[in-house]
Amino acid sequence: MILKFLAIFLLLWKTSPAEKARFDGFSVLRVIPKSEKQHLALKQLLRNSQLEIDVWRFPGFVSQSADIQISPKHFFKLNQTLTELGFRSELLIRDVQKLISEQERKNKGVKETAEVFNYGKYHTLDEVNNWIDNVTKFHPNITSVFEVTKSYEGRTIRGIKISTGDGKSKPGFFIEGGIHSREWISPATLLFMAGQMLDRYTADLRIKQMVDSFNWFILPVFNVDGYEYTWSKNRNWRKTRSKHGLCVGVDPNRNWDYDWCKEGASKDPCSDMYCGPNAFSEVEVKGVADFIMKNSKGMKGFIDFHSFAQLWMSPWGYTTKLPPDFKDQDKGSQLAVEALEKVYGTKYKHGSIANTIYVASGSSADWTYGAAKIKYSYGVELRDTGKYGFLLPPEEIIPSGTETLEALIALANYVVNN
Ligand SMILES: [Zn+2]
Q1: Which of 176, 183, 381, 403 is catalytic?
Q2: Where in the chain do CATH 3.30.70.340 domains reside?
């Protein structure tokens, strides 16, 4: 009897919500489908909920890699199935928890004082909000705070607007990060770039030109509830935190009201690509969309920053067909990735979303282009290509920010002249 109580206690203790999820012995495998048959079989396999697979990178098409996180409990079964399907898998990450702990330890070691914000560190939502308050206080003439809406759990989604001179006559440029909460490099890169735009404004002519060309709306953390959750409960959380039956969260990048929930999205509330019960079901997505629509008059640029894969992509996501503006849009991508590569040699691919990563419907860039009519709409996948995945060490933040800023300067320069 005592043993039984002890077992129940241990079970409750193990699953108590205060506990932070651990990923000891979880690994990430990379597989590459070599035929359409293998590709379909792989997609089928990834839907098998019994294996508790967490897909880090979805299989887009034949000869493109897919990255799959698997627990030690199901490792053998998955490997056996993959072998039966004719796959040869590569072990990308041996122990996910080890990388999580390493990222945590290194991040704690990055020095920061109350006076000096260190952009080379990953920051909590509270710290990001403090930063927003501080930079807008420090640059009162050219910055202001904008508030989008309240999240499902009641947090305020906030960003900064940078607008110099008489902002009225300028086009807008909206950049957002952290729509998928575990992609930490995205908010960190946005903070760095915004910091540079402000700190170097008076001394650096290229920055000044870029800043002066647009009214900039910078939203570093879109999915605030999810982001908070990645810090406190589960480092691997991707979706929002709304409740749907037995499962939690909607993929906020499958919830936009443009060709919603067709290919490349799931109707299963437990899926990481769950499109939601209806388009714009998520208050965060609806809030940002409303905000963009309200300010879309004259808005010319939009970028949604993700990680990982090193890709610079334009619409469409819902179909492999190309939109009429594709040539102009892709030229912007090309200029961006060329400028980016010049800094440290980091290689990015570019093209339309569906042809570069995978078909995904209900995504942000399709809506900003298709519905809000922002011609230069992009989805970007930042560093890396899979060595660390979402668990990129903090020493890569400033390099990522530095190269991405160059890409942004090149793109802004192109967009303003087109
Ligand atoms: Zn993402």
Answers
A1: 381
A2: 22-94
